[in-house]
Amino acid sequence: MNEEIESIERNNTWKLVNLPNDKKAISVKWVYKVKVNPKGEITRHKARLVVKGFLQKEGIDFNEVFAPVARMETIRLVTALTHYNKWSMHQMDVKCAFLNGPLEEEVYVVQPPGFIDKENESKVYKLNKALYGLKQAPRAWNKRIDRFLSDIGFSKCITEHGVYVMKSATSDTIILCLYVDDLLITGSNEAQISKFKVDMMKEFEMVDLGHISYFLGIEFQKTSEGLILHQRKYANEILK
Description:
The protein is α+β, with helices and mostly antiparallel strands and about 240 residues long. It is about 25% helix and about 30% strand. The protein has one domain. The chain contains 5 helices and 14 strands. Strand 7 (about 155) and strand 8 form a beta hairpin.
C-alpha cells in the first residue's frame, strides 16, 4: 500500500484540495492481488488503489473511454514472423501505467482508507492524472504512450492500433505489440531493442522481464524443434 501511494505521489497524480461546491468526490478502495510466475509460484503481493468508477457520470466525470490493444491474432502473427526471422522476443511491463495518463476532465476522489491526512480530513484529491478504476483511465494512458512512441520514431499500424513499428536508417526494424501496460518487443537489431528499453525506462517506471516466457496468459516455450505456445498454467487454474 505504501508503494502504491509513493508511486501516485511520484507521478504527481493528484493534489489535495477543497472540494468545489458544484462537484462530488468519488470513493476509492484498495484491491489486493497475488502475482505468480509461469510455474504458479508467488512472486509478489500487490495492493492497488482503485476508484469506484461505477459512480462516475458520463458527460460529467468522463467522455470517451475506448483504448486500442493488440489483438491476440496479431500477437500470434508477430510471434510467427519473429520465429521465421530468428529474432528474439522481449517483454516489459509498465508499473502503475494508468497513473501516467493526464486527465482532460475535472475529477475528484476521497482520501484513501488508511492514508487520510489528519490535519486536512475534509479535503479531497483533485486528479491530475488517471487512477485505476476510472472509466477513462485506459484511454488516458494509451494517449500518453502513443504520443511518446510517436516522438521517438515509431509509426502506428493503420489497421491495428495496438502495434507500432520503427524502421531505422539501416533498415533495421523494431515491432512493438501493446496490450494496455504489457509490451511485447521484437526486431532485427538487439542493440536497438536495448536502446528502446532504456528510453522506456527513462520515461516510465518499467519492469524489464527479459526474453518472453509468459505473456497475457500464454506460455512461450522454446524447443529444439521450434517455439510452442500453450496455456497449461491458465487451464490448470480454471480447473481448480
